[in-house]
């Protein structure tokens, strides 16, 4: 497939997914703010189009603005999420018309990809495609926060676990490996590729499951300060957290969860999700282990690909541990790609030789101790995004994201 065809196909696929995801919702649900930590869904929709206009029309072709007043409204750095409902947002119909007009002009301009650093390997087109996919996952998290009022996206049933469910730990020997990448559509924070020496370590063969996490709950893990860092215990107390987000104890040892408007029994074989970094860190301490560093995680993921993984909103949920054996890494570590984002112990920091491109606000302004790195993608992540080098990051208190974890320990 030539590059132009790939760009056109990926643009079409991501737009159909965005529109299909929101199509069942009434205008009221698109325009209201479901949670102060999330934007109104109609903001996300128009923001996708404004971002595309800025980069694929103005930056690439030099086209004039369609409506320059929209630039401020849909600037993610100018307006915190909690303030966005007060902005003069486009309504659902106007937002759809706007993103449709932008897309039409982009396709009309797509006779060839001009030369230049921004367009080398069609980078800027890949950036826009990935940006929309990332907002698709954000919009799914917003829908999940609707609780019992959410509509339920329907996917194909998840495959069952294999007869041999991966358990225990896998040893990854000491040595150097190439961390990061300089290829294709990788973001600036994944670059440059560089050698990284990692001591030998053990890592869980699979993500921590709901069954395993329930053992932590039943052992009083949320009641014991010794398992929590000081900041984590303060968060647990303030949030009154006693279990993963969306869970409810039903009595007699039974637990349920809400998933896109439906309440169901917690599936014990699935990776736990909707836990924050503090919860993951506390579990790891309770288990006598720790969270892996992102270098350990990436080294353990050698040979894992998105071709055999639970990605792309296929099931709208994590698959049972052991359901994708062909996707195991070279070291035999399962489900590193897809299912749930995995918290690591690492702060989000630049690689040696990092340079912002094409704008500082994608990565550079977030570097520092306030954000923790997540790796691997989730069931909601598209394969275009979910590569072993991709670096996600978030605040350690965030639980609405589709995040879980696995543990590691020194050799």
CATH class of the largest domain: Alpha Beta
Q: Strand order within the widest sheet?
A: 10-9-8-11
CATH superfamily caption of the largest domain: paralog of FGE (formylglycine-generating enzyme)
Name the helicity range: 25-40%
CATH topology of the largest domain: paralog of FGE (formylglycine-generating enzyme)
Give the helices and strands as they follow along the chain.
Answer: HHHHHHEEEEHHEEEHHEEEEE
Q: How many domains is the backbone divided into?
A: 2
Give the strand content.
Answer: 5-15%
Cα(first) to Cα(last) distance is 45 Å
Tags for this entry?
four-stranded mixed sheet; Four Helix Bundle (Hemerythrin (Met), subunit A); alpha+beta; 2 domains; 411 residues; 12 strands; 10 helices; paralog of FGE (formylglycine-generating enzyme)
Describe the structure.
- Helices cover 31% and strands 14% of the residues.
- By secondary structure, the chain is of the alpha+beta class.
- It has two domains: 3-149, dinb family like domain (Four Helix Bundle (Hemerythrin (Met), subunit A)); 169-410, paralog of FGE (formylglycine-generating enzyme) (Alpha-Beta Complex).
- Strands 10-9-8-11 form a four-stranded mixed sheet. It has a three-stranded antiparallel sheet with strand order 1-4-12, with helices on one face.
- Strand 6 and strand 7 (262-265) form a beta hairpin.
- The longest helix is centred in the N-terminal third of the chain and has 22 residues, at 123-144.
- The chain starts with a helix and ends with a strand.
- 42% of the residues are buried.
